[in-house]
Amino acid sequence: MLAEQAERSLQDNQTRLNLRESDLLASSDHVHQLESLVSDLQHTSHADQEEIRRLRSTIAALDNEKDTLQIGVDDRTEKLVNLETDLTAKVND
Fold first, then answer.
1. d(CA 68, CA 38)
2. Could you tell me where the DSSP H helices lie in 1-93?
3. What is the pLDDT of residues 63-75, one digit of tens each?
4. What is the pTM of this model?
């Protein structure tokens, strides 16, 4: 009787051990998948950060070009106003 209980207990423990090993393998696979996903996301994040830096640089260059063009427009507008003023003064003389 005691031997049967010991055998049954051993079988129960072996079954639980096999289940735990199976759970461990499944968890290990899941961890590997998550690590792979983290790696992919880190790579994507790095690429996105590089793209953001590039776009910010492009925006800064465009802002500088816009400022330069606006200064040119302002200068020409001022010249036009001066020429119109001079023309009006000459016509009225």
1. 45
2. 2-92
3. 999 999 999 999 9
4. 0.65
Question: Which residues, at least 6 apart from 25, have a Cβ–Cβ distance to it below 8 Å?
Answer: none
Q: Report CA dihedral (86, 90, 91, 93) to the nearest 10 degrees.
A: 140
Q: Please tell me the distance from the alpha carbon of residue 67 to that of residue 34, in angstroms, as a whole number.
A: 48
Q: What is the pLDDT of residues 10-45, one digit of tens each?
A: 999 999 999 999 999 999 999 999 999 999 999 999
Token pair belonging to 36: 């792979």
Length of the chain: 93
Q: Which two tokens stand for residue 68?
A: 């330069």
CA–CA dist 60, 53 (Å, integer): 11
